[in-house]
Structure formats: C-alpha cells, structure tokens
Amino acid sequence: MAKIIACYKWVTDEADIRINSEGSIDFSKAKGKISDYDKNAIEAAMQAAQSIGASAVALTFGTAKAKLSLKDALTRGPAESFWVCSESAEKADGAATAKVLAEAVKKIGDYRLIICAEGASDTYARQVGPRIAARLDLPCITSVRGFEIQGDVITATRKLDNRTEVVKAGLPALISVLPEVNEAPIPGLKAVLDAGKKRSTEFKLQDIGLTDADVAPRTEVRDFKAYIMNRKNIIISADTNADKVKELVANLRKDGVI
Amino acid sequence: MSKDYAYDAIIIGAGPAGIACAYTLAKNGKSTLVIERGNTPGSKNVTGGRLYTYALDMVDEGLAAEAALERKVTHEQIIILDGNRSISIDYHDPSFNSECKSPQSYTILRAVFDEWFANKAVELGATVACGIKVDGLIEKNGQVVGVVAGEDNIYAGIVIAADGVNSLIAQKAGLISDIKPHAVGVGVKEVILLPSVTIESRFNLKKDEGASCLMLGCTEGIHGGGFLYTNRESISLGCVFVVDELAGHGRQVHDIFQELKMHPTIYPLIEGGETVEYGAHLVSEAGYREFPKKPYKDGLLVIGDSAGFVISTGYSLRGIDLAMVSGIAAARAIIAEKDPVRVGPVYMNELEKNLLMPTMKAVDGYYDILEIPRIYSSYPKLAAGLFEKLFTVDGKVPRSMKKEIRGLIKQNGLSAWQLIKDGFRGVKSI
Q1: Which chain B residues are within 8 Å of A187, Cβ to Cβ?
Q2: Which of A137, A230, B301, B361 is the most exposed place for a label (fewest CB within 10 A)?
Q3: With an 8 Å Cβ cutoff, is B271 touching chain A?
C-alpha cells in the first residue's frame, strides 16, 4: 500500500527545563516528548491516509533516547514506525537531519506524501521539510493550514503574513504543516494497546547508505542561555472593574496591540 | 486495526498498590493491563515519600536492593512546635543502615520510584497504558467484567481498583460512599532543591543517610501535622490538615504552610533552597475504622489507598508499604482462585494472612488520640512552657516544678482532670 510518511522529532520537554539564576539552562531533569507540532503532522498523515486509502507511517531521526518515542508515535495512529538511530542526531543541524530523513524515505519507498511540521518545538529552524523535498526533488508546500488530495494532486492552503494562498502540486510531494492544520486527538486506550503490537523498524546510518561523516553538522550550537523578557510592570489600580477594563484597553491601544 | 482486547486482570492506577499487584500477576503468567491516568506513573503523585523496604522485598526478594530510592532513613525525628519555640526529638539508629542488611526504610521521590517500579512490571510482561482515564466499569449481571475508557471497552476476568484516595471506581461500584470530610486530610507539599552536602550537614547525616521528621503543633490547632523527608538533593516538606476542621478555620492551607516554612526551627533547614515542585492532594486519615465493609464485589477488588490502607499514628505515616502489601494480597487471591465471583473472600483471607488487616486493627486506637483537639495546640504549648521553665535560670529562687506545672496547665486553659482523662485515653488506645 502507498505510504504517507510523517516525520517527527523527539525533543526535550520544555516543561522540565530549569533556568538557573545566572541564565544558564539545566536540562538534567528533562524528559523527552514528541515535538508538539509534530503531533499535528502525524494526525495530518492519518487524515490524508484515510482520505486516499494509503497507509500512514512515522519516521524519526534520533539518538538511543528516541526509542521511547516510537510507541508514543504509534499510539497516534500510524501503522508502523521507522527510526534512524545514531548518536550524531544530538548535534545534527537541519541539513544533516534532512539528509538522513531523505535517505530513510527512499529506503521506506512507495510514498505519496511526506508531512513535516513547519518547525520543531525546540529549535523551530524550519529547515528540514524544504531540505528533504530538495534532496528528493519533490514539490514542497510550506506553512500549510489545510489541504486536500484528489487523485494525484494535493491542494494546500498556505498561511502568509496577513493572507492565505492556495497552492496545487502533483504527488508525490512534501508539505510542512502549521499546528492549526488539525487538532491532534489524545490517544485512547485501544490506540495505546494497538501501538504495542505494531512494527517498529530501526535503521543504522549504514542501513540507509550514510556514514557518520555524511551527517556531520555544518552549523554548531555553541551556547544556550535563557532570554529574559523585560516586563512592563504596569499595575492597573482603578477603583471599579469598569474603570480597570477602560484603563487596560487604553494601555493596549497605546501599544498598538488592539 | 483495533480489535477486542481481553486480559486476565485490569488494574486501574499505576501507583505502588497497582504495580505490586501487576508485578505479582505478571510474574505468575497472568495477562495484566495497568491503566494510568498520568502521562507517566507517579506523575500525579504528591506523597512525601518514604518507603519501608520489607514491602518491596515481599513483592520480590531483592527488589529493594535495586530500587530507585533516595536516602536510608537513620534519623527519626519528631518536632513539637509552639509559636517560635520548638522541642525536637531525634532518634538516631545507625543500625537502620548497617551493612549486609536491607535498610528498614528509604525516602523516595514518587515520580522516580513509580516509573521504575512500573518498568519492572513491564519487564515481566504486564502492559502499562498511561495518559488514559478510566470512566467506568462494565458490569454484566452484577459482575464487573471490564472497564470503559473514552470510547473503548476492555474486558478482563477481574478488575482491580487502585486509583487512590477518593476512589471514584470503588464509589461507582457502590463499595464506598463519597469521602467524609473528617476521614480525609488535605496535604500540601513542596520539593525544595538543596545540594546533598548541605542536606547532610544540616541534618547531621552521613552520605546516603536520611532523616524523616514529623511535626506537631504547626497546624493552628487543626487535626493534622507536618512532615519532612530528606531526599538526595532535595527536601520534601509538607503539611496535612483534616478537611472538616480546616473548613471552619478560616485560614488558607498555603498561608499556614508558609508560616511553617518560615518557622525559626524549620527555615534554617530549607534556607537557600529552591522550590521546584509543589502540589496538594487528599490523604486518607481514619485507617481501620473507615475501612469499607467489603473492599470487593463480584469481579472487582479494591486495594491500596482506594480501600483506605493508611496508618497515621502521630509518630509515623505509612501508606506506600501497606498499598503494596494489599496489591500482593489481591494478586495472590487472583492466582489462587479462578472464579472472579469467589475471589473477594480469598482476598480478605490473604489480607489477614499477610498481616495487613491485623496491623490495621492493632493501630486503630491511635486515631482516638489523634482526635483529641488538645494535642494540636494546648499540649505543644504546655510542653514548650515546661521546657522553658526547666531551662530558665534568672538568679531567683526556682519555684517547685509541681507548682510550675499546675500554673502552666491553668495558663493553657487545661485542667488536671482533662490531662488525666486524655492520658488514660492515650494509654488505652495504644
């Protein structure tokens, strides 16, 4: 059966990240999770697969830690999952990740559509989707907020700054979706139990014809620091609620927010 | 893709009771599904936490040695607070940490421990499904045959309610009534990060050793008390208040708790630490006397906190160990008795055999003492006053202790007769 491949990333759960007083960041207590936006990408693959009678599969590139992600991804519906396991994922940049995922997609084969999230919830670099498309020489539609497939054509609505754009492309294609493309449901009990019975395939880099040198990053993260936003520290202290609202609205107007 | 699932046993709740049960069942080849509401086992838990290791070794020999634990408790402390004053009792027993012997108890962080414990059950073949809320039970001719979660029905030979205090499952099954405000406390807790060396020097501990501390007189006269456990790199500090007395009191729990944190005896213990977690939860308080008449019905067993397996004596708090022992009892009953209609009485019998019910009965009297309102305010005052007189030297002729005591009793609105009555009640109760 033709496949729709949803790519996802196993990221650090930002809820567990601690910021030390001097601005350094402590990841030591942080657990992993599927990047929030990727949950929408997986759900988009599920809906697309259903509409054209294809099979949705999930694909990730991650370190040994990403093994925990496979079951989570499968509870969201895909029929099987693929995981390229390499410690190089830790430092991989968008280019390296796209190279790995593109080779994995070739290995999986028989695909109609590849769906990525617009960006990952940790880096939001928005590189991987377009770069995979370039490597596979596929049409690529980014910032997708809605799409439908008819025959061999995908019609997607892109969200731009203050307008939308409707774009058509022939399949196979790659789209990167915004979170608003759907509402990713919370998996139910049977979905969780089903996931335990589904197949997960692990690839090493050599299985997809790559070496460590192939995935060496060309950009390097040198430093992580907390960014402290300066608050306005305005306290609205009018007597009545009506006056408080008036003052709030006046403040928001002044700042051009409304 | 979805098909019908059927298990030998479904356990609702992946806490110590549920996992001890699942572990024992899975080890004996029963197909077992544990359904947990939290995204990971332990993630919804607020318990202080201390674990008596005998229970873990009862689940499986040697399990305590490899468990995810914090510090071996070698210091048992009781602090009586009154205003800015305090009386501390510290029972130090290094033999609780002697070599070649499993230490009697450990402090634990439940988020870490529960996840470890659940993984042990999974290794033996149990399935743990997290992030799922069980909405109800499926009954057929008055017998529980499965559970409903969202749109999914899953069937099992037997269902075990291990969903904790205020068990909605046991309530839905008609086994317990809605919680009674006098039988539960509301507990608040903070986890405060501190370097391990700081903890060791503040509590006079060797590496890996820990302190467990209960506090009296920190609840503004409300039935309840404080607790403090030293973890490896944090301190769990909390306070429990019985709900019906708290409701009429007028002050907020977090205000009273904040005052406890700022108390001149407590603050130096947590000074410089950073609160990284806070939470509140119900605690079952009444023990045996509120135990359900029948913690089972056809096809359903109730274990752990759901059944009220908690012991609070004033000098110790037990729940996690009792939960595990009840989980083991349920598992053994299920293994021994194939007929889900007959497994309930076998479970009760197992609870007797593994000494859980006798233990609950034996300490039931402590609740009578804990119900005396004077022990939360006037008695701590009396005790602190007594020590004040004892240690005050001002160059005057000391009054006789008899007179001092009489004066203090009067000053605190007590009478000698009241003291004798309470003392008699105390001796009778324990």
Answers
A1: 131
A2: A230
A3: no
- DSSP letter for A119, please: S
Q: Could you give the 3-state DSSP secondary structure of residue A114?
A: strand
Rounded-to-integer distance, Cα A156 and Cα A165, Å: 8
Q: Do B149 and A189 touch (CB under 8 A)?
A: yes
- Which chain B residue has its CA at the smallest distance from A186's CA? B131
Alpha helix (H) residue ranges in B99-231: 110-123, 168-172, 196-202
Four-way CATH pick for B6-70+108-176+292-354: 3.40.640.10, 3.90.25.10, 3.90.1030.10, 3.50.50.60: 3.50.50.60
- Cβ distance B211 to B205 under 8 Å? yes
> What is the predicted ipTM?
0.80
Chain B hits for A31, CB-CB cut-off 8 Å, are 40
Chain A's closest residue to B36, CA to CA, is: A189
Question: What is the mean predicted confidence (pLDDT) over A104-118?
Answer: 97
Task: Answer yes or no: is pLDDT of A234 > 90.
Answer: no
Does the pLDDT of residue B3 top 80, yes or no?
no
Q: Residue A191: its chain B contacts at CB < 8 A?
A: 2
Mean pLDDT, rounded, for A174-182 = 97
Enclosing domain of residue A255: 229-258
Q: pLDDT tens digits for B411-423?
A: 888 888 888 888 8
Across the interface, whether the CB atoms of B1 and A194 are under 8 A apart is answered yes
Tokens of A247: 């003052």
Listed by number, the residues of chain B in 13-52 with a beta carbon closer than 8 Å to a beta carbon of chain A are: 33, 35, 40
Residue B141 pLDDT > 60, yes or no?
yes
Q: How far is B159 from chain A (nearest CA, A)?
A: 16
Residue A240: Cβ-neighbour burial (10 angstroms; 0-12, 13-18, 19+):
exposed
Q: Do B150 and A196 touch (CB under 8 A)?
A: no
Q: What percent of chain B has pLDDT over 90?
A: 61
Angle made by CA atoms B170, B173, B175, in degrees to the nearest 5: 60
Cα B289–chain centre separation: 17
B142 Cβ under 8 Å from any chain A Cβ = no
| Listed range (A208-222, B66-80, B297-311, B388-402) with the worst mean pLDDT | B388-402
B2·A190 Cβ contact <8 A: yes
CATH 3.30.310 residue ranges of chain B are 184-284
Per-residue model confidence (pLDDT) at position B100? 62
> Closest approach of chain B CAs to the CA of A190, in angstroms?
6
